Amino acid sequence: MKFELTSEQELIRKTAREFAEKEIAPFAAAWDRNEEFPAETVKKLADLGFMGIAVPSEWGGAGMDNVSYILAIEEISRGCGSVGVIMSVNNSLACWPLQKFGTDEQKEKWLKPLASGQKLGAYCLSEPQAGTDAAAQKTTANPDGDGWVLNGTKNFITNGAHADTFIVFAMTDLTKGHHGISAFVVDAHADGIAIAHTEHKMGIRASDTAQITFDDVKIGGDQLLGEIKDGFKIAMQTLDGGRIGIAAKALGIAQSAIDHSVAYSKERKQFGREIGKFQAIQFKIAEMAARTEAARLLTYKAAAVKDSGARHSEESAMAKLMASRNSVFCAEEAVQIFGGNGYSKEYPVEKLMRDAKICDIYEGTNEVQKMVIAAAVMA
Amino acid sequence: MDFELREDQELFVRGVRDFARGEIAPLSTQMDREGLIDAGLLEKIKQQGFFGLSFPEEFGGVGLDTQTYGLVVRELARVDAGVSIMICVHNSVGSFPLLRFGSDELKRRILPQMAEGRIASFCVTEPGAGSDAANMTSRAERVDGGYRITGEKIWVTNGYHADFYVVMARTSDDGARGISAFLVERGAEGLTIGAKEDKMGLRSSDAISLVLDGVFVSEENRIGDEGIGFKIAMSALDGGRIGVAYQALGIAEACLDVGARYALEREQFGKPIAKLQAIQWQLAEMATEIEMASLLADKAAWLKDNDKAYGKHAAMAKLACSETAGRCADKALQIHGGYGYSKDYDIERYYRDVRVTRIYEGTSEIQKLVIARHVLDQFGG
Questions:
Q1: Is B361 a catalytic residue?
Q2: Do A38 and A163 belong to one domain?
Q3: CATH architecture of the domain with residue range B7-115
Q4: Looking at chain A, which runs of residues are DSSP E strands?
Q5: Fewer CB within 10 Å: N-end or C-end of chain A?
Q6: Which of A208, A232, A256 is the last residue of a domain?
Q7: Same domain as A141, residue A261
Q8: Domain B231-378 is of which CATH architecture?
Q9: Whole-structure pTM value
Q10: Residue B57: is it exposed, middle or buried by C-beta count within 10 angstroms (0-12/13-18/19+)?
Q11: Across the interface, which of B198, B341, B363 has its CB nearest the CB of A344?
Q12: How many CA atoms, within 13 angstroms, populate the side-chain half-sphere of residue A322?
């Protein structure tokens, strides 16, 4: 075992950190207030190669490993969780399934623009009645000549209203349950696709979350991703990677909570001294730091296992479970350390608390992670 | 021991529940968005006598005992935590200093006005004096016929609407013993009401900053003797904390309500998620914690109603109820999954509203200090 980063990994972390400090953190509060998607910032991330970090360079990506990818998400999310998730969805949920299951033609046409950041991707799995029970898909893909016709409604689609490319899951055989699901790559601007509404959310308000309807959307036979009826497997394997991204996003929020707490407790005086001199505050910060380090190690390990090519469902689920819980814990403690000021929008920590909670929910709730972990442990 | 409510308590609480659901609930989302209580609703609340709940009948109030008052706060908070704190602050920390420490003349002049809906607020916190309230720097200088107060107060709940500001200010440099309490009336020269805080939650309730620039207060408007202001503030907060405990309980119950209801409606894996153990256990933990916390609140109220020392129990109740409510909001939101994160569902607001119950009227850390002091005192420490 060794715990140091390669010089390449150090470099990407430094680059991401500096970018987050200069280009993200100063604007995060305004994006949050206005529910503004940071389109210009996403373009700059693309210039850095951050929209396809672990995609080979021949397919438009930065050709780095997953540990590098995770380090970048963590640092970017330290500036703003919304930007972290915009990046994570494009990298993990749009690029990766194309890279893993796509044909060379599909990679040329769909992956290259996503990995290079010319286009933005989204992942359409959840439906109004199919959340944690993702297999209960009602969206259908019926054969139509050489291609397919899509009909259905997808829910809580991150990047949905801004995306150019969708990875869409749909039933090609309604009688087979989750064995009847297939995956498709779809042009988000195709006829028949509409944004039904975008969600007004508690947090990650710079990230757009849309409900999308598919009404007789005609797609070609060459838009099937992987084998027919392999969709559920593709969806789950994709989420195994996505969860590491969300874990990293949660780490960034937790670290930001620690950063702000340390700075505030050194500056804020009560009872004649800095509150950082009180054990009550010191122990909170110690607990935050220790739990964050533990969650970080789980997350980096999951990324390293993914880099090794081994299965990583259990590691990803553990990382996501612990990192997301820890982000909520740290953000709540930060608000507490800030006292009344923590409840005010003039200070940055109330946003951290609102942004953190979604980590417990998306790309599989904590309950789903426990199902995955229990299944692996008990197998 | 007797755990039942009296019939008059039941009746009173039922009336409040109907009012809260009929008149407040339909406006909550809008008030949260706009960051202010609805003007028509505020009028109705006045007419219904909510601003006189804890005031003795001789001053035109309803004269509720602490427990019944707490149950009322809980019912209000179950629907809208912001509205409940507005009523709480008025009925406890905003008026208790007068009721308990004011001169007869001051009480006769002011309390009936408060009881009929001229709103009270409580001004202790300053930019540099939060948990360390004794470190306040606002000063009241002696002048002919009274005092002139200069300083800044922040986080003044109800300040936007208030007619009366109970202001703590320094009359000498003798630490906590150098603080005195004053009643400042709206419109006083030199009194500037600052902007409303833009808060994460509890947005139907306002909190403002207050600047006092040589505000004249007559001798008659001093509450109690010089130098007992800190004692007045702390004893007002002992009672205030019981109110906040019940407020937190109301939010916790609202979380349990929507969590259980959603779990019964939402189907995944071919059945309501309420059939899954993972969800049942969340609900079971919420219900058990709420029951424990509410017994603590009821005991604190009982101690106060029976003229027994209640400071320790008020702190315990506030700590337990607010921490419980925070956990309930987290669990109930989790039960809602992605929908819980959307502003289309009430739980999203409860999650934001509940957070401040661990902060105001003494943070959880302050409650622990208070409890620890009582415990150590028992051992001669």
A1: yes
A2: no
A3: Orthogonal Bundle (1.10)
A4: 121-124, 140-144, 147-158, 165-171, 181-187, 193-198, 209-219, 224-225, 269-270, 273-274
A5: N
A6: A232
A7: no
A8: Up-down Bundle (1.20)
A9: 0.93
A10: exposed
A11: B198
A12: 21
Query: Domain segments of chain B: what residues?
Result: 7-115, 120-227, 231-378
Answer whether A329 touches B (CB < 8 Å).
no
Interface confidence, given as ipTM, is: 0.89
Domain span at A205:
121-232
Amino acid at B173: D
Question: Would strands B120-123 and B164-170 be described as parallel, antiparallel, or unpaired?
Answer: parallel
Alpha-carbon Rg for chain B, nearest whole angstrom, is: 21
Bridge partner list, B91: none
Query: Tens place of pLDDT for every residue, chain B, 381 residues?
Result: 889 999 999 999 999 999 999 999 999 999 999 999 999 999 999 999 999 999 999 999 999 999 999 999 999 999 999 999 999 999 999 999 999 999 999 999 999 999 999 999 999 999 999 999 999 999 999 999 999 999 999 999 999 999 999 999 999 999 999 999 999 999 999 999 999 999 999 999 999 999 999 999 999 999 999 999 999 999 999 999 999 999 999 999 999 999 999 999 999 999 999 999 999 999 999 999 999 999 999 999 999 999 999 999 999 999 999 999 999 999 999 999 999 999 999 999 999 999 999 999 999 999 999 999 999 999 987
Residue at A2 is within a domain:
no
DSSP structural state of residue B131: S
Measured in degrees and rounded to the nearest 5, phi and psi for residue A131 equal -105, -95
Domain total for chain A? 3
Among B29, B126, B131, most A C-beta atoms within 10 A, so best to mutate, is B131
Are residues A104 and A139 both part of a single domain? no
Q: Choose, out of B157, B322, B355, B366, the residue to mutate when testing the contact with A (most A CBs < 10 Å).
A: B355
Helix (H, G, I), strand (E, B) or coil at A209: strand
Q: What DSSP string runs through A297-318?
A: HHHHHHHHHHHHTS--HHHHHH
